[in-house]
Amino acid sequence: ETHHSADILNEEPLLPRIQDYAAVFLVNQTVLSREFGAALKDYVRKGGCLVLEGSNLGADESELSGVTPVSSAEASKWSAPVQKYVWLPIDGEAVPVRTPGQMIRCNQAQPLLPLLSGPDPRHDATPFPAATLRSFGKGRVLSIHVPLLAYFQEVHYPRLRDVFRRLMTKL
Predict the structure, then answer these.
(1) Which of 4, 44, 105, 159 has the fewest Cβ atoms surrounding its Cβ within 10 A?
(2) pTM exceeds 0.70
């Protein structure tokens, strides 16, 4: 939709040519092989831009993302057990994203976008970021801790695209 071309590759064809790409996106990836994780770290250290998107990857790859998950007890204070959506702020409004999202704390990363527990950005902010940015060597890692792209693919809300576009400008 934004008129950018992309190659869609899995680990095997990407590994030998990862340095050829200015940016690599991992969307809804759950587990990385040790070899691929090491290649990603090397890629970013040398100046690459990595985007991690999904419910667990940012916290599972905490060395790259610079975040850690919060305890389930702490997370439960901010979300109802049956809550289907969290919200992301954009221009004084909020746009929903289907859960699950992962509530995290920043270590070496800087928060870019707050996670909202409801649709009012003035009153529903949680202490957890929905997106973070970390410098890693000469490169950067943008972590999106909610399924933003997967949900956009499902519903095509233009405001979700606006959120993603803004986040990409931070790379």
Answers:
(1) 4
(2) yes
Q: Which residues of 87-111 are buried (b: 16+ CB within 10 A; e: fewer)?
A: bbbbeeebbbbebebbbbbbeebeb
List beta partners, residue 51: 25, 142
Cβ pair 132, 67 in contact under 8 A: yes
Q: Which pLDDT tens digit goes with each residue over 115-155? A: 998 899 999 998 999 999 999 999 999 999 888 988 899 99
Closest Cα to residue 160, out of 84, 94, 79?
94
- For the chain, the DSSP string reads --S-------HHHHGGGGGG-SEEEEES-----HHHHHHHHHHHHTT-EEEEESSSHHHHTHHHH-EEEPPHHHHHTTS-TT--EEEEEETTEEEEEESP---EEESSSEEEEEEESSS-TTT-EEEEEEEEEEEETTEEEEEE-S-HHHHHHHH--HHHHHHHHHHHTT-
Q: What whole-number distance in Å separates Cα of residue 96 and Cα of residue 155? A: 10
pLDDT tens digits, one per residue of 52-92: 987 666 566 788 889 988 877 777 776 655 468 889 999 99
